[in-house]
Amino acid sequence: MLPITSILVPTDFSTHSEKALTYAKEWAKQWSATIHLVHIIEPVIFPVDWGYTPVDLSDVEKEYSGAAEVELKKTVDELHAEGFSVIPQIIHGGRSSDEINQYAKDHAISLICIATNGRGGVEHLLLGSTTERVVRKAPCPVLVIRPD
Fold this sequence. Notes:
Elements (H helix, E strand, L loop, with lengths): L5 E5 L4 H17 L2 E8 L16 H24 L4 E7 L3 H11 L4 E5 L5 H7 L2 H8 L4 E4 L3
Parallel strand pairs: 1-2, 1-4, 2-3, 4-5
Helix pairs in contact: 3-5
């Protein structure tokens, strides 16, 4: 088995992501690995064809980014207090799955530990699955944490 030196944990600050982080912490303890805690902010899309008055979404993105920074700092502080080596990152980019896989490739990540929300049926067909797309194109092994 190859040594695990870095674990990427994508987070949306949900209970599912917290569960994935719990698993990642156990692996990080065993291998003395660094945890890369990453939050992706996808662009806010405004459908201009709806006929509504245009809305400035830059303020919405700034607010969301600020809230994400607060949540990420809180989680990182807790991980540091527990003795973990953590690299936090907020990425403003495109599709989450693409950004996760690119980050893993760029940083030579050993393992991605990602949660799935357990959507199925029509909801899965309409919304797709970030986790599924990560698994299909990941440059490293992926540990998928299912919901309770």
